[in-house]
Write a structure and sequence with these properties.
The protein has 13 helices and 35 strands. It has 698 residues and is an alpha+beta fold. The strands form nine sheets. Strands 7, 8, 9, 10 and 11 form a five-stranded antiparallel β-sheet that branches.
Amino acid sequence: MNISLRSIKNILFLCTLCIVALSVTGCSISKRVARADKKFAIGEYYTAADIYKKCYSQLSPKKQRDMKAHVAFRQGECYRILNSPRAAQSYQNAIRLKYQDSIVYLRAAQALQYQGKYKEAIKHYETYMISHPDDYVARAGLYACKKVDEWKKDPSRYKVSLSKDFNYRKTANFAPCFAGEEGNVLVFTSNRQLTKGKKKTKRPSNITGQQVFQLFQTRKNAAGKWEEIKQPEGLYNEQAEEESETAQQSNDSTAGKSSKGGAAEMGVCCFSPDGKTMYFTYSKAINGQDQGTKIMSSQRASGEWGEPQEVKLFHDSTISVAHPSMCPTGDTLYFVSDAPGGFGGKDIWFVELDGTEWGVPENMGPQINTTNDEMFPTVHADGSLYFSSNGHPGYGGLDIFHAIKDTTAKDSTKYLLYNMGTPLNSSGDDFAMTFEGNSQNGYFSSNRGDRKGTDQIYRFELPEMVFLLEGAITDNFGENLSDGALRLVGDDGTNTKVQVRRDGTFKIKLKKDVQYVMLATARGYLNQKQTVTTVGAKDSKTYHQDFQLASISKPVGVDNIFYEFAKWELTPESEGGLQALVKLLNDNPNITIELSAHTDMKGDEAFNKTLSEKRAQSVCNYLVAHGIARDRLSPVGYGKSKPQTADKQISEKYKFIPKGQVLDEAFILSLPEKQQEICNQINRRTEFKVLKTTYGMY
């Protein structure tokens, strides 16, 4: 093939153009990645994520693998901070591109755990721990992923439901807080659009790209219904809105250049015990840069909130503080900060009131804080601390934990830490509880089940645990004893006597974590004791206990006592019946009894009498061996001389036997062979009757 000189020149020219184009493109992408890195550094994660996303698709996985891996990881970081489920895929992309920092495996594991993909998360946790075997957060995550199926089988008693009173369309709503002790005003954080006059004001955040967060409140009316949601009176910052509108116009005119001002955001509040002082989180971006967060306070007077003032907790004004929570006594403020001296990520701190000024902040310590984030503290009326963490073992994302001071430890900073379990916790973020007074009812926040990670407010309630004891007191023949009574003695000091209803039944309310002894009594009948305990019960329960009282004046059959065929040795199957007899004698320590054994009509009369005597003696020997005094027992063998007389129970069970019928030889021989054997079996019995009721009393 002949190629002209001109053709060769054209080919070389085109190649040169391609090389230049690739060089320019590479340079352009590098600049855009650098711009995204800068946005990431100043906290504009939404903008950074968008730039990273566009760059990622243009980078070559072969020639620009390292840069593409960096972009994928930073994408994941942006999505993680913005609570987007897309973080998991970005981290997976970074791993596939061989991102050099092993932290990517930890982040990927956490993102997968956040999505409830526990088996996949385990693999990444294990990979990360090869080079970081002592990392507490990784060990906690791995442990949780392996235990989560077991945990889900044992949910708490809390009932959880999405609150329709506060959530609005597709906006985020979270961190509810009751204002004051009455619990009829609720303040929460939301990024729903503000209404000014007849128009809605758009106030986008430079950090998230979404509508900025503000405080909203609602009041419960006399009918118990939450009324119109609006902003707290006097707290709405008109200046912030004007700055926001100016910033928006500036953004529109400069086509993406950083604005000089930014919309102020407010949220996550708490109140002093008297409800007159509000503390809340405040942040504002300046010159396109996140300035961190502050805690502000406002005093309520004449129905409106006054001008907010900064609560200065650290000498260094650049330290971010947020998520204030006041203790019930009003002298300790809990908050969140990434201040130096912490354990990594965001930690929970507290500061005590020293006269009229706040003292020196203290970190809550390593039992509460981890190298990850601990946030949204809430102090219950009982003084215990609730908070959220993604560092302790949990279901994924932020889990709610309960911290109680360990009173058994010498160190007053020691805590007992409990994961609140399902259904309060999920694989998503669960956080910011608020309680109705002293109760275990209230509201919390969660983004569970939301594909975009949008937070919503949920209602939680802990139903009262109700323990009931019900049953009936009857005689040995199943007849109700209307004059029966039940005495309950509890290890908490309870000592009460309850009369049964006319039908012999009873229903009694029991207390939690109490062990009871029950004594059933009725005139003319022996007592019977039983025990019941509510100790360790995890949910409401109804206990059923019937009592069958033996008559003092009539012979009483002892069930389930068996002997070897034609012998007097007791079989192992007799243990239950014998123990029941031991219990009866212990329940009634002042009685003496005649213990009698009976045989059927078969065989020689003398043999049967001797056999029955030895059988009665065998039972007495057992009773003596189990602590019953020998002089309370009188063994007698009647052989076949005293056949059974059918009572109501026998007659109802065997329809061919009339009530009151004596099962003597004449009657038995008149029956078919199968029915004869039933009657012989009934006659082969062990009984007792009371001889005295004053043993040991005189």
